[in-house]
Design brief:
heterodimer, A: 132 residues, mainly beta, OB fold (Dihydrolipoamide Acetyltransferase, E2P), 8 strands, 42% strand, B: 392 residues, Peroxisomal Thiolase, Chain A, domain 1, two-stranded antiparallel ribbon, 14 helices, 36% helix
C-alpha cells in the first residue's frame, strides 16, 4: 500500500479526497470525515478509501514568498511558494512558476515534479499564469 | 492540586558550542541546581529536545543527562513538541508536582543544531510540516514566515521598516544579555535604509530579510521547580507558576479559515490568563516566540496587548522597549538571543524569572515587574504553550 507521497509519484498527480458517505472534500487526506465521522482506510481492509479527486485548475493566489535558503533536492537559486484557493474552497500550497506573482491573481494549478529526494520523486502542484 | 514555584535557573551561552548535546544540557542543569542551592534531591527530570535523534544521532537523552550529572535514580523523560518542547516540558514538571508525583523537578531544554549544515538544520525543522502537502515541496518554516508576513503587511499596512525597528530593539537587548547568540549592534541606517542594505540585510524569504529571522543556535536552559509549600528550604524566593495554557491548530497552515488567525496563541493565552486570574493589562513583560519578527507583532495582538493590526503603532511609540508600557523580548528574543529549538521555551521562562527576581542586567532590567508571560510557538502555530509567572 503506497503512502500518499508515493501515490502522487506513481500517478504523477495530486489528489483531494472525498468522503463517500457525505461528499465532504479534503486536502490533504484525513483519516476520518470531520462532518460525518466516516472512517477512511487507505488499505481498504476494514473501511472503504475516500474517493480520489484530481486537484488542479483555476485558483486564486492568497499569499506568496520567494525563498533563497533552500533545502535538499532543489536545484535552483530560489524557489517561490504560494497558498491558493480553488473554486470548490479547497486550499493548497504550490510552487509558483510565474515570474511576477501578485496576491489575488488567478492562476492555473497543474501537477508536476516539485522536488527530487534521494530515492524518491515528489509530485505536487505547480502554479502557472492562466493560458490566454 | 499543589501550587508550584521556580527556585533555580540555569543557562548556557547560545551560539556555537563545542560540547556534545548532553554536556551542553548538563552545564545549564548544574547552573540551575547551584542557583537553587542544591546538589541533588531531584525526583524527576524532564528534557525538552526536538532533534537529538535526527541531528546528533543520539536518543534517550533524558537518561543520559541524569547519568552525566549523577541524579540517578530520578525519574526521567524526554518531551518532544517541536519548537514548543521547552514550555511543554515545564508544563509536565508543573503537573508532576501539582499531582503529588514529585516534590522537586529539573526541567532542561537543549539543542545542538550547528553540528550539521544550515540546510540540514532547516530541513530537520521542516519535518514538522505535513509530509506530502507541505514538506514534499521543499517548504520551510521561513517560507511560511514570508507568506504570513506578506499577508499581514497587505492587510494591516505593516512595513519593512517596522520589522527593522523590532530587529534593532532585539539586538539592543541581546547586547546586554550574556547568554545571547548575537552580540552585534544593529541600526536602522545599517539594515533598512543604508546604501548597502541588499548586502548587509538581503531578502531570505520575501519580504523577510536576514535581520527578520532568528539564527541557528546551540544551547540549553534549565529551571528547578518545587512545591510552593516546601519552597522555603531553597536559597532564593520562589517565582510562582500562576498559569499555563496550551492549544493546537490545523497541521497545514493553509487550511486555517483566516491565514493570519493564530488561534492557538490566542486560546493558549486566554487559558493561562484564566488560570492565573488576571488579564493582559496585568502583564509586566513578555517573551514572545519571534523565530520570524512578524510573530512578535502577531502574537502581541493575539495575547491581548494590542488590537489586531495596531501593534505597529505600539512599535512606533516604543511601547515594547525595556522602558515601554509592555516590554517584549527583553532577552533579545529568538531573533537575537538565538533559537536552539528544544531550549527556547525553557529559556523564555528563565528570562521571566530573572526579570521578576530583579536579576536582569542593567540596561535591560524591567522596573518593578509583577507578572511575566512567555509564549512558546510550535510548528507554525499548530501547538502553542503560554506560561504566566508571578512574583509573590
Amino acid at each position: 500500500m503506497p503512502t500518499t507521497t508515493e501515490l502522487y509519484a506513481v500517478d504523477r498527480n495530486v489528489y483531494a479526497f472525498r468522503c463517500p458517505e457525505c461528499g465532504a472534500l479534503y486536502y490533504p487526506a484525513p483519516m476520518v470525515c470531520r462532518k460525518c465521522r466516516n472512517r477512511r482506510d487507505p488499505s481498504v481492509t476494514v473501511y472503504p478509501d475516500f474517493e480520489k479527486v484530481p486537484l488542479g485548475g483555476p485558483c486564486r493566489l492568497l499569499t506568496w514568498t520567494r525563498i533563497y535558503a533552500l533545502p535538499e533536492g532543489i536545484d535552483r537559486p530560489s524557489l517561490a511558494f504560494g497558498v491558493v484557493e480553488f473554486t470548490n474552497g479547497i486550499r493548497a500550497v504550490g510552487v509558483l512558476m510565474t515570474e511576477k506573482p501578485k496576491t489575488g491573481a488567478l492562476l492555473d494549478a497543474r501537477a508536476g515534479l516539485v522536488r527530487e529526494l534521494v530515492g524518491r520523486d515528489c509530485y505536487g502542484l505547480q502554479l502557472f499564469d492562466p493560458s490566454p | 492540586m499543589r501550587e508550584v514555584g521556580i527556585v533555580g535557573i540555569g543557562h548556557t551561552k547560545f551560539g556555537r558550542l563545542d560540547y556534545d548535546l548532553v554536556d551542553i544540557m548538563a552545564w545549564s542543569s548544574l547552573e540551575a541546581l547551584k542557583d537553587a542551592g542544591i546538589e541533588g534531591g531531584i525526583d524527576q527530570v524532564f528534557v525538552a529536545n526536538m532533534g537529538a535523534g535526527a541531528v546528533n544521532n543520539q536518543t534517550g537523552i533524558a537518561s543520559a543527562l541524569v547519568s552525566r550529572i549523577f541524579l540517578e535514580p530520578a525519574m526521567a523523560e524526554t518531551v518532544e513538541n517541536g519548537p514548543a518542547s521547552g514550555a511543554s516540558a515545564v508544563k509536565c514538571g508543573y503537573l508532576a508536582i501539582a499531582a503529588g508525583m514529585a516534590d522537586t523537578v529539573l526541567v532542561t531544554g537543549g539543542e545542538r543544531m550547528r553540528e550539521t549544515t544550515g540546510w540540514k538544520a532547516t530541513d530537520f525543522v521542516a519535518t514538522l510540516t505535513h509530509p506530502d502537502a507541505e514538506y514534499a515541496y521543499g517548504l520551510t518554516l521561513p517560507a511560511y514566515g514570508g507568506m504570513f508576513t506578506r499577508a499581514y503587511m497587505e492587510r494591516h499596512g505593516l512595513t519593512e521598516k517596522h520589522l527593522a525597528m523590532i530587529a534593532v530593539k532585539a539586538h539592543r537587548n541581546a547586547e546586554k544579555n550574556p547568554f545571547a547568540h548575537i552580540e552585534e549592534t544593529a541600526s536602522i541606517d545599517g539594515i533598512w535604509d543604508g546604501p548597502h542594505r541588499e548586502v548587509v540585510n538581503p531578502v531570505m524569504a520575501d519580504p523577510l530579510r536576514l535581520y527578520d529571522l532568528c539564527p541557528v543556535s546551540d544551547g540549553a536552559a534549565s529551571v528547578v521547580l518545587t512545591a510552593m509549600e516546601t519552597a522555603g528550604r531553597f536559597k532564593k524566593k520562589p517565582i510562582r507558576i500562576a498559569g499555563i495554557g496550551q492549544a493546537t491548530d490545523t497541521h497545514c497552515v493553509f487550511n486555517r479559515e483566516d491565514l493570519l488567525d493564530l488561534k492557538a496563541v490566542r486560546l493558549a493565552a486566554e487559558r493561562a490568563y484564566a488560570m492565573a486570574g488576571i488579564g493582559p493589562k496585568e502583564i509586566s513583560l513578555a517573551e514572545l516566540h519571534d523565530a520570524f519578527l512578524i510573530l512578535e507583532v502577531a502574537e502581541s495582538e493575539e495575547v491581548g496587548f494590542f488590537p489586531k493590526g495596531e501593534a505597529k503603532k505600539a512599535i512606533e511609540r516604543g511601547e515594547t522597549e525595556i522602558a515601554g508600557r509592555i516590554p517584549i523580548n527583553t532577552s533579545g528574543g529568538l531573533k537575537a538571543k538565538g533559537h536552539p529549538v528544544g531550549a527556547t521555551g525553557v529559556s523564555q521562562i528563565h528570562e521571566i524569572v530573572k526579570q521578576l527576581r530583579g536579576e536582569a542586567e542593567e540596561g535591560r532590567r524591567v522596573k518593578n515587574p509583577r507578572y511575566g508571560l512567555a509564549v512558546n510557538f510550535g510548528g507554525f502555530g499548530n501547538n502553542v504553550v503560554a506560561t504566566i509567572l508571578a512574583k509573590e
